[in-house]
Amino acid sequence: MSYCRKLGPNEKDLVIFATKEDHEVPSSITLPEPDPQPGLILPNGNINWNCPCLGGMATGPCGIEFRNAFSCFHYSKEEPKGTDCFELFKTMQTCMQQYPTLYNKDLGDDDELNEALDERKNTMAELKNTMDESKNTTDEFKITSDNKEKKT
């Protein structure tokens, strides 16, 4: 049979001693359903700055700048939405560039993008050169009406 004992200063701690028989019986306790998480926008329309979806952006070293820019965008009435927030986002980006170890993954020079653009430029240049060479080769020969090539 289990029993309880109060311990500690002023007997504020309640310690429950359970026997082996107590643990052999399945628990009859039912837990309440967890409260639904509100997400980024609260039911009243305000921004939930504690949402894990923000990844700590609202509380980092550029948290104020992020909150100002994001709030401006969220409450913007301009079309397209947020066009009145350009300066605030620029301020946020400037702040984030001062902390490259925290924000480098999404800001500044994107090496993968730059490499892809360089590769595309090189491919386009090679294609243009190939087309120019092909054009020069076809210009040297003209097909006559009897389908014979004649060098010009």
Overview of the molecule:
- The protein is α+β, with helices and mostly antiparallel strands.
- It has a domain at 52-129: Helix Hairpins (Orthogonal Bundle).
- Helices cover 42% and strands 11% of the residues.
- It contains 5 helices and 4 strands.
- The strands form 2 sheets. Strands 1-2 form a two-stranded antiparallel sheet.
- Helix 2 (63-75) packs antiparallel against helix 3 (86-97).
- Residues 62-98 form the CHCH domain.
Task: Detail the topology: elements first, then pairings.
Layout: E1 3-7, E2 13-17, H1 20-24, H2 63-75, H3 86-97, H4 100-103, H5 111-140, E3 141-143, E4 149-151
Antiparallel strand pairs: 1-2, 3-4
N- and C-termini, Cα separation: 111 Å
CATH architecture of the domain at 52-129: Orthogonal Bundle
Low-confidence segments, given as residue ranges, are none
| Number of DSSP E strands | 4
Q: How big is the Rg? A: 35 Å
Alpha plus pi helix count:
5
Mean pLDDT: 82
Give the tags.
Helix Hairpins, mitochondrion, CHCH, single chain, protein-disulfide reductase activity, 152 residues, elongated, two-stranded antiparallel sheet, CHCHD4, transport, alpha+beta
Outline of this structure?
Helices cover 42% and strands 11% of the residues. It has helices spanning 20-24, 63-75, 86-97, 100-103, 111-140; strands at residues 3-7, 13-17, 141-143, 149-151.
